[in-house]
Amino acid sequence: MDRDDTLIEDPGYISHPSQVKLLPGAAASLVQLRKMNFKVVVVSNQSAVARGILTEETLSQIHHQLEKLLADEGAYLDAIYYCPYHPDGVIPKYRMESEMRKPAPGMLLKAAQDLDIDMSRSWMIGDSYRDIEAGMRAGCKTILINSPIKPVQKNPSDPQPDRQAVNIREAVNIIRMYELRQSMETTFEQRHDEPAQTEPPQAAAVSCPEDSPHVISGPVNTVAAPITEEPVEQKQIEPPVAEPAKQSAKTDEQKHEVSAAEPKAEPVYSPKEIPTEKMPEPEIRKPVEKTASAESARIPHPLAEQSEEPQMSLRTEKLLHELLSHLKSVHRAGQYEDFTISKVLAGVAQVLAVACLVVSLWFCIDSTRSSESVLIMLGYASVLQLMAIAFYMMRGRG
Predict the structure, then answer these.
(1) Which of 53, 223, 349, 374 is the most buried (most CB within 10 A)?
(2) Is 2 among the catalytic positions?
């Protein structure tokens, strides 16, 4: 982030540590960024060194005072980078153009290298468009501090920031809401992917009676096949292709052997005795790959009814988030302004000025009043109006 008019007040060129004054809410905002696991780095153009207004030793004392004021409120900086160079400087040592000077991204890239910072997940906060350009060139998301007290003038060539805020506190709230939205989207994607990764349970193996060549129909992925055991003294019955008389003669002997070997087995018929109306037609089973889609269409997935709940939950969360963002954006400039004595005095002076104007109009209507009294009241109204304007301009420094 930038230094002047972002963290501290900017009276012009700060040349002494006693001039360092934190902006309202600056320290608390840095504490919030720390809680969100952000590193806080200050990058500042300091052409005052090149112009001879102060030395680098004095600048070091100013930055030490800044860190001390922040530490008194529990806030800390990871690093401070500054650029003392300027092409119009009066000190020959610093009279040059530098890649470290914003809008060049030199200071941001050096901070990323020194502190191992991921610029794609970082934010650049500043009160000028050169801060925004430096952040964009470094690969950061950007927030422009555009205070109603000191509005920033935009040129046609200036880049468009990602967000705008009235002060550092609102900028931190913007970052917090962005991180919350990213967390919600990540959570939804994980919930949405869980049903797709879950596979339906495979069916267990099914046992069949001995020598029972029946086809078993079951759930998807179940392989149906006759189960063979140790052969008994029984010959496989084949359709009558040739020599029907010889096969008929052996029928009684086969029936006797089968009944003796396995009393509970089903009776074996000869080809002539098999009742055709009781013979089951061979069931033609399609491959498992072809029937999987049909079976899965008939069998409801155990998570099918639950898959809509995270989606509806996310829609509700997004709707509430949009509503909350809209409510916070209403009169946000007034939301972050502090209650100061200067603001109160400005309001009182404005009321008195209006009252003097009303009295002067009454004196004009009243024929018993002289013109001098009217001019006196108008003079009071003018003075009070100027006082109101002065107090209003001073309210940000009160």
Answers:
(1) 349
(2) yes
Is residue 4 part of the annotated active site? The answer reads: yes
Pairwise pLDDT comparison (188 vs 127), residue with the higher score: 127
Mean of the pLDDT values across residues 188-214? 53
* DSSP secondary structure of 280-343: PPPP-PPPHHHHHHHHHHHSPPTTTTTTHHHHHHHHHHHHHHHHHHHHHHTTHHHHT----HHH
CA torsion through residues 284, 288, 289, 290, sign: positive
Locate 272 and state its tokens: 């002539």
pLDDT level of residue 22 (50, 70, 90 thresholds): very high
The answer to whether residues 274 and 247 touch, using CB atoms and an 8 Å cutoff, is: no
Long-range contacts for 185-188 (Cβ within 8 Å, ≥24 apart)?
A: 188/310, 188/311, 188/314
β-bridge mates for residue 351, sequence order: none
Q: pLDDT tens digit string along 54-64?
A: 999 999 999 99
Number of residues written out for the chain? 398
Is 10 a residue whose pLDDT tops 70?
A: yes
In the DSSP assignment, the letter for residue 230 is S
The rounded distance, in Å, linking the Cα atoms of 343 and 335 is 14
Distance CA 5, CA 81 (A): 16
The residue annotated as part of the active site, out of 4, 5, 131, 211, is 4
Between CA 263 and CA 193 the distance in angstroms is 56
| Separation between Cα atoms, residue 130 and residue 161, nearest integer Å | 11
Are 6 and 127 in contact by the 8 Å Cβ rule? The answer is yes
- Count CB atoms within 10 A of the CB of residue 162: 17
